[in-house]
Amino acid sequence: MSNLEPRPDAHELGGLASTSARPALDLLPGKEVLLGEGTPVRRLLPTLGRRLVGAWAFVDHYGPDDLGSSAGMQVLPHPHTGLQTVSWLLEGEVHHRDSLGSDVVIRPRELALMTAGHAIAHAEQSPVEHPRLLHGAQLWVALPDGARDTAPAFEHHTTLPGFDSDGVRATVLMGSVGGATSPGTAHTPLVGVDLALAAGADVELPLEPDFEHAVLVASGAADVEGAPLTPGAMLYLGTGRRTVRLRTEAPAQLLLLGGEPFEERIVMWWNFVGRSGEEIAEYASAWAEGDRFDDVPGFDGYRLPAPALPPLPLKARGRER
Q1: Element (H, E) at 56
Q2: pLDDT for res 290
Q3: Is 80 part of any known ligand binding site?
Q4: What is the DSSP string of 98-142?
Q5: 78 assigned binding-site residue
Q6: pTM across the whole model
Q7: Residue pLDDT, tens place only, 268-293
Q8: pLDDT tens digits along 48-84
Q9: DSSP for residue 264
Q10: Are 271 and 2 a contacting pair, CB within 8 Å?
Q11: Contact at 8 Å (CB) between 295 and 102?
C-alpha cells in the first residue's frame, strides 16, 4: 500500500536512545488521511510521539467501509524499497499485483507479505465484483541493513497458525506467540497477532519482555492493562512486560504488534526506506526515470508519481518527537 500524502514527511527512525526501557501506557494519536481515490484511513505509525514499535514502521487502519456504490480501493502502481508490507484484512477482498508477476486476491485472515528489498512495485485494488465491506490494516516492517538490498519477494499464506484461550482466538501473522509460529519470513525479531475476543473475555497473553509492544483496536472496545480503548485507537505498551491483560464486554477485534527495538538509523519518506536523504532522492529519481523498478503486469501507462522532495535536506528526528 502506498503513502499517498502529497507532501509526505520525512522521518528518521531507529536507535535505542528514546526506546522505553520499562512498561508504558501511551495512547498514540493517529490522523485521518485519504488513500488512493478517496479511501479514508487512520494513520497510527508514524505519529506524533512515536515512529517505530520494534521494526514496525507504518500502521494504517481502514474501515469498515461500505463499498456498495463505489469501486473501492484503487491504489495504482507505486514503488517500495528497504521494507516489508504486511496486508491484513478483516473484511473484504484486495487484488494484489506486483512487478514480480504476483497476481492474487487477498481475503480475510490471509497473510500477504511483500518484501521490497532492493526494489519492487505493486498495485492494490478492490476486485470489480467485491464484497460490500472493506476493513483491515496495512503495515510496514523496516528491513535491517543486512536484508534491505535483498531480492524482492512475495508470500501469500492462506492458512495461519493460532490458538484459542479464555475467550480469545489468536491468529499469528508474524513471529511466534503461545507456541504458534507464522510461516511469514521475518528479518528481525518481531511479532504480529490478530486477536478476536468474545464478549466478556478476560485474558492474559504472554509477551516477550525484551520486545516493545502496541495494541490496535480494529473494532469493538477493549480494556488493555486497565486503559479503555475504542475502535481505531492504538496503545503503546513499552518494554519489560511478560503478559498483557485484555478485557471486553462485547466482541472486539485487536491487533498486537511488537518486536525487538530497532537499533539501526533509517530514513523513511513516501514509500521508501533508506539510510540517508541522498539515498531516498536516488530512489525517487529512479522511479521517475523508469530505472531500478520493473513494471507491474496488467497496467499500461499511468502509475503514481513520486511527490516533490522537500526543499531542505531530509532531517533526522529520531524515534520520538
Answers
A1: strand 56-66
A2: 92
A3: yes
A4: ETT--EEEE-TT-EEEEE-TT-EEEEEE--SS--SEEEEEEEEEE
A5: yes
A6: 0.91
A7: 999 999 999 999 999 999 999 999 99
A8: 878 899 999 999 999 898 888 888 888 899 999 999 9
A9: S
A10: yes
A11: no
142 class by beta-carbon count within 10 Å (0-12 exposed, 13-18 middle, 19+ buried) = buried
Q: At 281, which amino acid appears? A: A
The pLDDT of residue 60 is: 94
Q: Is the pLDDT of residue 31 over 90?
A: no
Instruction: Tell me which amino acid residue 79 is.
Output: P
The response to whether 124 counts as a known ligand-binding position is yes
Give buried/exposed letters for 102-116 (b at 16+ CB in 10 A, else e). beeebeebbbbbbbb
Look up cell 508490507; give the residue. Answer: 85
C-alpha separations of 23 from 14, 59, 102, 194, 232 in Å: 19, 21, 41, 22, 22
Buried b (16+ CB within 10 A) or exposed e, 60-96: bbbbbbebeeeebbebbbbbbbbbbbbbbbbbbbbbb
Domains of the chain: 10-259 (2.60.120.10)
